[in-house]
Amino acid sequence: MEGTKPVNKKLAAALSGGAVLVLALSGCSSSSGADDKKNDALDTWAKQVCDGVQPQAKKIEAANAAIQKETSDNSSPADVQKTDAQAFQDMSDAYKAIGAAVSRAGAPDVDNGQKKQQDAVKELNDLGASYAALKQQVDKLTTKDQAKFADGLKDIATQLDKLSKSGSDALKNLEEGDVGQAMAKQPSCKSASATASAPASASPANG
Q1: Mean pLDDT by 10 residues, the chain (207 residues)
Q2: Which of 140, 148, 158, 175 is the most buried (most CB within 10 A)?
Q3: How many CB atoms lie within 10 A of CB 113?
Q4: In the structure, how many helices (H) and strands (E) does the chain have?
């Protein structure tokens, strides 16, 4: 009776791509250019974005951890369905909220700042919509037939894998150079990236 477990492991592996996307927005990539001039406007912008990202990074990490936990437990299809659906909903909400935070902050004061900001907001909203669609797909799976359920999960894992690879190019473009340096200075971005990169360890002692 462990038909769903290997598939849910795939889901968990594909989901780790979500953490990478948060990292892309938390100013922790090494940005080129060692120009250390103080840019108050950019720092203010970075603080606003980072403060918006931090709680959502925690939400994405918690969703990740919930699915990871399902892979370590001998969970029934119904439990897996419930957990995965909630995780996808949480991730959808989180990406939309990050998009809203970037949108509220306005365009950063850099070359092509407005285009970079708009592209990133669109990318985040698209991600939110994709996770919402996956949530609906999980909701429709039949839990009565374990083999069919595992097949359905496999399909979702494939889509999730594509989603995690479809990239965060717009986010990376947004946070390169001076923007990345300004974000890297923000305590909330540092803690967001620590949250996103922390491995989700489910303790077997208290499942």
Answers
A1: 64 61 51 51 91 89 86 81 94 94 93 93 92 94 89 88 77 86 84 54 37
A2: 175
A3: 17
A4: 8, 0
C-alpha distances in angstroms, 33 versus 2, 23, 115?
51, 20, 21
CA-wise closest residue to 14 among 136, 125, 166: 166
State both tokens at 95: 């990406």
**Cα-based distances in Å from 69 to 65, 72, 74, 185, 207:** 6, 5, 10, 33, 8
SS (H, E, C) 100-124: HHHHHHCCCCCCCHHHHHHHHHHHH
Tokens found for residue 14 = 């594909």
pLDDT in tens, 142-158: 999 888 998 898 898 88
Distance of alpha carbon 190 from alpha carbon 13, whole angstroms: 24
* C-beta of residue 81 within 8 angstroms of C-beta of residue 141: yes
169 in helix, strand or coil? helix
The structure tokens listed for 189 are 């971005």
DSSP for residue 186: -
Backbone dihedral angles phi then psi of residue 74, each to the nearest 5 degrees: -90, 70
Residues 22-46 pLDDT 10s:
555 554 443 444 344 447 889 999 9
